[in-house]
């Protein structure tokens, strides 16, 4: 099934490996290095122009979204329960 992650962007639920809060997590040296490397490789994209609150790790890269991590996780759970 598909999951709406903002600004009309959809992801397949099975592509999602993890959802991470940008507040604090993106500040860790390991995460900063990971996100910087993903950006260098062109493996990042954004669902909208707003300030990102969450980054979603997928099997194809990283997607930034303005939707809260709790909301994304809730949507994933709802989609999984409908399968």
CA distance, first residue to last residue:
8 Å
The figure for the number of domains is: 1
Share of residues in strands: 25-35%
Integer average pLDDT: 93
Could you spell the SSE succession in H and E letters? EEEHHEEEH
Radius of gyration: 12 Å
Strand order, main sheet: write it out. 3-5-6-4
**Given the helix and strand composition, which structural class is it?**
alpha+beta
Gross geometry: globular
The helical percent reads: 25-40%
Poorly predicted ranges? none
What is the total tally of β strands?
6
Largest sheet: 4 strands, mixed
Structure notes:
- With 83 residues, the chain is an alpha+beta fold.
- It has one domain (2-82).
- 36% of the residues lie in helices and 35% in strands.
- The chain has helices at residues 22-25, 29-40, 69-82, and strands spanning 2-6, 9-12, 16-21, 44-47, 54-58, 61-65.
- A 4-stranded mixed sheet has the order 3-5-6-4.
- The protein starts with a strand and ends with a helix.
- The model has no long low-confidence stretch (mean pLDDT 93).
List keywords for this structure.
4-stranded mixed beta sheet; 3 helices; 83 residues; 6 strands
Q: Strands, helices and their partners?
A:
Layout: E1 2-6, E2 9-12, E3 16-21, H1 22-25, H2 29-40, E4 44-47, E5 54-58, E6 61-65, H3 69-82
Parallel strand pairs: 4-6
Antiparallel strand pairs: 1-2, 3-5, 5-6
């Amino acid at each position: 099934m598909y999951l709406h992650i903002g600004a009309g962007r959809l992801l397949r639920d099975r592509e999602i490996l993890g959802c991470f809060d940008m507040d604090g997590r993106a500040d860790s040296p390991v995460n900063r290095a990971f996100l910087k490397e993903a950006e260098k490789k062109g493996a990042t994209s954004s669902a909208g122009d707003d300030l990102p609150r969450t980054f979603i790790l997928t099997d194809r890269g990283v997607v930034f979204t303005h939707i809260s991590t709790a909301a994304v996780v809730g949507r994933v759970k709802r989609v999984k329960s409908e399968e």
